[in-house]
Amino acid sequence: MKQSSLAFVAVTLLAVVGTCLSGQAQSQNQPPRPASSRAEEMLDRWNDIGNKLIAMAQDFPEDKYDYKLQKDQRTFALNLLHAAAFEYVVARSVSGSNLGPDFGEGDNPSRDQFKTKADVVKFVQQAVADGAAVIQQQGDAGLDKTSPWGKRLVHNSYKWMFAIEHSGEHYGQLVVYYRANNLVPPDSRR
């Protein structure tokens, strides 16, 4: 009885392994999908980091929104507000419009303007959506246009990449705030 059970298990494992290897071989023989447009690729990266920030804004406990590790750092809420405001700075620069809400000069909105968690969440969501709309509207041609950035001209693609990387830096900071509060960030729960 024992030998027949072992034989059954061995045959079953071989069948599973064979099926997996056969599937891998078939997918390796498939040609890669064509590249998306550059605007679609940029939009994918924009939405990826934007959605991570939105998830954090929605998930982090409101009673910890004013938490910070050290006195000279931004709070959790101020990190989100700064990242979203900078996304607007870039989207406004690229679009040549006064896109989004008035949050004052620069990229550091006051917490007085965004008093509740719901206010912060809405601001982050809108910044991501408005930036995505500009990328979609302008397409590849918009990425190639140049405009001032500080004291030089740069392609709009540079500005979008800068904003994506900037949001990624703040995402990393917010992960630290999660861990310091014995919480697991939403993206780490998958």
Structural overview:
The chain has helices spanning 2-29, 38-59, 76-95, 117-144, 156-180; strands at 146-149, 152-155. With 190 residues, the protein is mainly alpha-helical. Strands 1-2 form a two-stranded antiparallel ribbon. Helix 3 (76-95) runs parallel beside helix 4 (117-144).
Write a brief caption for the model.
The chain is mainly alpha-helical and 190 residues long. It has 5 helices and 2 strands.
Topology:
Elements: H1 2-29, H2 38-59, H3 76-95, H4 117-144, E1 146-149, E2 152-155, H5 156-180
Antiparallel strand pairs: 1-2
Series of H and E elements: HHHHEEH
Sheet with the most strands, sense and barrel status: 2 strands, antiparallel
CA gyration radius, whole angstroms: 23 Å
Sequence stretches where pLDDT stays below 50 over 5 or more residues: none
User: How large is the count of helical segments?
Assistant: 5
Kindly report how far apart the N and C termini lie: 42 Å
Spatial sequence of strands, sheet with the most strands? 1-2
Task: Kindly report the average pLDDT value.
Answer: 90
Which class best fits the helix and strand makeup? mainly alpha
Which percent bin holds the helix content? 55-70%
**What characteristic shape results from the CA principal axes?**
flat
* Quantity of strands, as a count: 2
Q: What is the beta-strand fraction?
A: under 5%
